[in-house]
């Protein structure tokens, strides 16, 4: 390693260490409340989620349906997906919940499998909870003709 490369590498290491120590200090001081579970760290709109409601009308073709119930504290990780406790093919027969769409079993090449595709496993990427709040930014979106309210 040349002297110039060694200097650049050591500078990058020191910068990474400094950034890590600053983030650790912020999380310990309360400045990084984003990762804490305190009520102040949760967006206020999350508290306005309905307990249970009807599915709202879709606004465009192939829109993922919104979730008509709160998903607070739902665990959706690579090992656990609590949405499937009610919405899997087997569970939906018992719970009466909407069954996951057949499209969720297709891989990126269009092959249909027996379990949900990894690209469709993290439900909350597309399906979001409803909240009755004012928009944060102006929105002039108009549903397609025949869709929406």
From TrEMBL:
InterPro entries: Multihaem_cyt_sf, NapB. PANTHER family: PERIPLASMIC NITRATE REDUCTASE, ELECTRON TRANSFER SUBUNIT (PTHR38604:SF1). Binds 2 heme C groups per subunit. It comes from the Bacteria. GO terms for biological process: anaerobic respiration. Keywords: Electron transport, Heme, Iron, Metal-binding, Periplasm, Signal, Transport. This is Periplasmic nitrate reductase, electron transfer subunit. Electron transfer subunit of the periplasmic nitrate reductase complex NapAB. Receives electrons from the membrane-anchored tetraheme c-type NapC protein and transfers these to NapA subunit, thus allowing electron flow between membrane and periplasm. Essential for periplasmic nitrate reduction with nitrate as the terminal electron acceptor. Belongs to the NapB family. It is found in: Periplasm. GO terms for molecular function: metal ion binding. It comes from Aggregatibacter segnis ATCC 33393. GO terms for cellular component: periplasmic space. Heme c 2 binds at residues 104, 123, 126-127. Heme c 1 binds at residues 69, 83, 86-87. Residues 1-24 form the signal peptide. Its main location: periplasm. Component of the periplasmic nitrate reductase NapAB complex composed of NapA and NapB.
């Amino acid at each position: 390693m040349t002297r110039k490369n060694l200097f650049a590498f050591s500078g990058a290491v020191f910068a990474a260490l400094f950034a890590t120590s600053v983030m650790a200090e912020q999380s310990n001081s309360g400045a990084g409340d984003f990762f804490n579970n305190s009520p102040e760290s949760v967006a206020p709109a999350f508290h306005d989620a309905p307990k249970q409601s009807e599915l709202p009308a879709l606004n465009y073709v192939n829109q993922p349906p919104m979730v008509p119930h709160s998903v607070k504290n739902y665990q959706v990780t690579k090992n656990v997906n609590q949405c499937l406790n009610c919405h899997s093919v087997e569970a939906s027969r018992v719970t009466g919940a909407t069954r996951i769409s057949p499209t969720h079993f297709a891989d990126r090449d269009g092959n249909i499998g027996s379990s949900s595709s990894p690209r469709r496993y993290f439900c909350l990427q597309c399906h979001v909870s409803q909240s009755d709040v004012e928009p944060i930014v102006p929105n002039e979106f108009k549903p397609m003709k025949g869709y929406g309210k």
